[in-house]
Design goal:
Four copies of one chain form a homotetramer.
Chain A: E1 18-19, H1 29-35, H2 46-62, E2 68-72, H3 76-87, E3 93-98, H4 101-112, E4 116-121, H5 130-139, E5 145-151, E6 153-154, E7 159-160, H6 163-172, E8 178-182, E9 201-205, E10 217-221, H7 223-231, H8 241-250, H9 260-276, H10 278-298, E11 302-303, E12 315-319, H11 326-336, E13 339-340, E14 352-356, H12 363-379, H13 388-400
Parallel strand pairs in A: 1-13, 3-4, 3-5, 5-8, 8-9
Antiparallel strand pairs in A: 2-10, 6-7, 9-10, 11-12, 12-14
């Protein structure tokens, strides 16, 4: 007999991988445990009973009472398609904002789905131009605009848009357009208020601030969106809300097989969020983001986000000097420090690298990352003062980190 | 301090759940282990490298060399939509077979996607009527039929269709229609030969014979199907092969975030299949199915499948006497024996219950299930001779089970 | 890049391993999940808090209020040594019963620890000879006997001794000897009443009816045993209760590092036992054992246990005809059916094989095993009627299995 | 139905726990995966086959060819007892060094096991006084000293003793005393050479640098130690090497039930160590330790270790100013930062806190810890310059961290 030595990993490195891409993010041990299970019959009483409560509880992360959630076995891209095809018909005019790679991809999807997209473009690094939106709404007395589509948090540039202001504009002009929001890198991390802001469809993906594996697109529809779905002429089957609603009514909930593991994972992810308290979670994200920005400043580098009002609390895109290729920073993080950072995408490729600071994460994890970034910066020839970013971050954090409530 | 007692499970029962629904099926421990992991950056070199080999290896389960596989974060329903929308245009004439609930659902999808479906219906329990197909092909000298869509194994009735015969007909009439096959409850369990049978699109789902969690739809396209995808006018984005092909070319492989866990799970599932040998896997399914049918016969019950040529080796639908409600059998299995059986669906609701015998399963697991079914039958008033089905199954199995190669 | 194919298991076989050795036994998924975790600082407040409640709760499985439990990082053999060395001094006279391999090993340990062992031997298959014990107690007016040591359930032969009768004898003769009980294959499965039966030290191992991994020896001492430990002259350090008691008093509980994983595993194992109800657990073991014995009878084979009063509800040792080597049965189970049975040990090697039916196990799992044994018997040339044992077991079980309370 | 909300953890905190106690240490995901498995029959061919190779491979971590290893289901304390009782007889004279809490505990064990311990005491913070050893050896012409017992790395004070120098002295005086070494917090992390240094018994515990859960004491005996075990008169059973050797000879390897999970865990831990390369592992520990010491220096704090020659590469004990209670530092780490540091023990309680930097750990993890310590120091009133320690550590690390070989 010869025990077969097995190469454990093709890219093995000792210690933890420091995962700071803005998704997929770190999964807490509690969730890994909950998902470590065999399949089950999803037609037994157990799964519908569990689903019923999940659907109630998941509404809390959208801050909605009147919304109807759908837990779809798909990714954020599928959730986008679900939002659009259920509420709009081919040819419908959509106003959308192009401010970075993910808003670009969503707009591309809209166009390929045959909607008539009226694009409001900003510099990459700026937020949605709401003045232009105002003009368009003012001009649209005939209500040709059927929907406003906006990415709450543009993951490519670290820009957070002001959704309350969008709602204010719609109200001001008494415009009936649907308000569709990509909350993929915001929900469960940034302040999000579906009902208060009159959002008609909000959506997120499991692998972002929920800290689950990829595979569940969570879409939440307002009563107005549900109403729209009854008349939408977009062709759809897999993403059709009708099938879900039919099974909701029957109490079996699933038009097709869900991932048993993701259901238990979601249950646990929600339990953790509720145990910490959603407001505390948001506060934690704000704290980690502020610490990151202070480090960036201390390094003498620029935030890709142009104005403070747009600073994202889930991802920071850092601009590197022109003599440095930001991709080299990401590569080096992986090759030397077991640190995973986000690449610059498309227009900002080579120019920015991104630090994702969302999901189930704490301050010391972030500080390890920041220390790593400092060493990488030095590696690639940027004259950083080692320790400077960490010092700036710590100075802020040491004043603001709360005691852990369960341990006081 | 008070340790919080936690109700572990709302439906706790001691011992293993005996999972014999025809999907989702039992996940082997090796796969659970492989999936027990944190998220990773899918843009690091590790995931593309792994994906590249997975795409090569997954072709083996389709028995194709020329096919192009897509690993889509979706379910079987999404895989159907991917197959149809990438290869056909609205209004295209499809010939499809209605022989049970899953063929029905696929046809429903075809219609809602605006294809012109020419349905060939059989009794539930019978296979596809290939004579009618022959006539239609013969008559279709103008080649108005753009595709033949067939469910290889109808999970609702336990009917396996003869794909080689379909190909023979197409060849006989030199008909250029695309040949699209739902292999959801067949691939990795039944004999399936994509290239030899000239299948243009074949598809399966991760939670079936691959024995993974739900969440990956695996679609494989022939060169002819890929060619068709270039001109198909069906609206699609999430399911569009174009995006995959673009990323394949770039070597990054993923147009949107994959489930890291399912990738490692698939790697392991394939490793296990290849270690056992695909032909041995198919042989094992054949053995388990035969044993099940012998038990059914011994119980004096009828197989829902009308002829031996259609007997399914992955699921057996058992017809109960009219004085028994088959749903009561399923309920009782769950409530008393921790046994999960499949319900009768739609037309055969209340009339049949189903035993799924697919995936990573062995003989003694099946025999435990069969013994359970016997007790349930007695519970619900059917005069079964206890032990009779197990005896019949054992008589066959004891003659046919091979030694476990790794342990000889 | 070349993905390294990894031989998953050197002895891979499809489907579940059917684990029917009398320990280590099947671990329920809930326990595996609970143990799937990183290490923790065992000096933080969390572990002592958890331990405190565990020590209270673990007393329930011994049915003791006055006992003091010790959770020792060791096996049953170590638990034996802990029981003996803490309560007795070298040269002390012990009366012990030799009825099978495990009582033999314990006696061997007693002798090597320099106790003066007065052995009462029975045939392998018979229980402890309590008449002889009676005579010895009657004769021992000088109280030279310091302890009675008895294995509650002899795992090698499937013999359960009558502990209440032992206590009755001690009381009858007003004999002050300590009453030490090996409950390794009984506690959490058989009726065990530490306080009522006046047991002074009871012990078990985590890998038996608690259904955990190996590694925790659980020893419970009566006040009288604790008192004895103060004067025992046996040399001991690792197993010394004094160190535990010192740390209990300090509230930190651990004289050396415990297995964090086993603590969480134990927590879950107890939660599951309490959820099912300890009496229901014992009833389930009784039911599974009766079913097994009925199968053995139906096969025309003899139970190694000579009288019904000694029948064990956790393990059944089956005598094979002299022309069959029972080891071949065990080998064949493993090589052909992925079934793990217990070997015959020492005096009964080659003559008996053992079916362990303890721990977190249900009826259909057992029936799968019994069906497997039938096929093996046929394989090795025994003229069994296939299905006969399963039929006999089912006839009994179908009348006695209760509904699953959580699912009614 | 009401889904039971379950308090996930009584001491829940978001993000990873930063585990920097000097044991138990972080378990890598690969090991957690390997251990996530059901029990198995340890008498099947699989476990002996695996054990055989494990016993060969485990010798590599001791750097021995002639040694015989024992994998004992116990902790370090049990491993100590195994080392002593197998090689020595009651009354035997042992020379041992008292330099901190763990050497103290071992000496306490020696005394309670009735050996005649000749203690050479040093200040806590100093290493073993080898001059005194020299005198004793010189004086012991009658060879009354039967063994030299030394803790390689005193975990309480962060002191590493010079084993080569001990051997040199023994050789110089041609003294035949056995050389017994506690390698609990050194083996797999510090340079350790059993054969070269003529160590007779070396031992470690699974939860230290092997990065496994607690529960396996690994003891390795030289041929001379094995020879001594044949005549040792110490009473022992559970820890008796004889039983192991008997089962080694039989090829079944286990005198009692091993933890299946720890065996697979050990297999994986060794695979990871060998993949990284044992010398690289030691180099990594040296690097992390140096970085830690530079941070301590930058904070203006003193290392408890008095001289550089004794600096430990696995744990650093940091002396706090007298106006600070070091326990408060540890408490605060846990209560505010989810950071687990080591308490000061016994003589240095309240005076030092300890940073464990051993096991499967990387630089960014350590830097997160160091940043945390800085904030804690500020919390408790020590005037640290935030960022100073991290800066000093980074300055060193950025120059010395190698590229990850598998990722170049």
């Amino acid at each position: 007999f010869q025990y077969t030595k097995c190469k454990m990993d093709d890219y093995y490195a000792p210690g933890r991988n420091h995962l700071f891409v803005p998704g997929p993010v770190n999964i807490p041990e509690q969730v890994l445990r909950a998902m470590n299970r065999n399949n089950e019959d999803y037609r037994s009483p157990a799964i519908p009973a569990m689903t019923k409560v999940l659907l109630e509880d998941v509404k809390k992360i959208f801050k909605t009472i009147t919304g109807t959630p759908f837990l779809i076995p798909t990714t954020g891209t599928g959730a986008w398609e679900s939002a659009l095809t259920n509420t709009l018909s081919p040819g419908d005019r959509i106003v959308s904002f192009l401010i970075g790679q993910f808003s670009l991809l969503w707009i591309d999807q809209m166009q390929r789905l045959n909607f008539n997209v009226d694009v409001i473009e900003s510099d990459w690094g700026a937020g949605a131009n709401l003045e232009v939106l105002g003009s368009k709404l003012a001009a649209d007395t005939g209500h040709t605009i059927k929907a406003i589509c906006i990415v709450h948090n543009e993951t490519a540039t670290g820009v957070t848009n002001n959704l309350a202001a969008v709602r204010k504009l719609l109200d001001h002009y008494q415009h009936p357009a649907l308000f569709l929001v990509d909350g993929v890198s915001s929900i469960c991390a940034l302040d999000f208020r579906m009902d208060e802001w009159g959002v008609d469809v909000a959506l997120t993906g499991s692998q972002k601030a929920l800290s689950l594996p990829t595979g569940m697109g969570i879409v939440c529809a307002s009563p107005k969106a549900l109403e729209a779905s009854k008349t939408s002429k977009s062709v759809r089957v897999f993403f059709d809300w009708k099938d879900y609603l039919k099974f909701y009514k029957m109490g079996t909930f699933w038009p097709y097989t869900p991932s048993i593991q993701l259901l238990y994972g979601l249950r646990t992810a929600l339990d953790l969020l509720f145990e910490e308290g959603l407001d505390n979670v948001i506060e934690r994200h704000s704290r980690l983001a502020k610490a990151t920005r202070l480090a960036v400043e201390a390094w003498g580098l620029k935030n890709c986000t142009q104005k403070e009002e747009w600073f994202s609390d889930t991802v920071t895109a850092v601009v590197v000097p022109s003599y440095i290729d930001s991709s080299e920073i990401v590569r080096r993080g992986w090759k030397r420090y077991n640190l995973s950072l986000g690449l610059g995408l498309n227009k900002v490729a080579g120019k920015v690298f991104r630090i994702g600071h969302l999901g189930n994460l704490n301050e010391l994890q972030l500080l390890g990352c920041l220390a790593g970034v400092e060493m990488i910066l030095k590696d690639v020839g940027y004259p950083v003062k080692l320790g400077s970013g960490v010092a700036a971050a710590c100075a802020f954090l040491q004043n603001t980190i709360p005691m852990i409530p369960s341990r006081i």
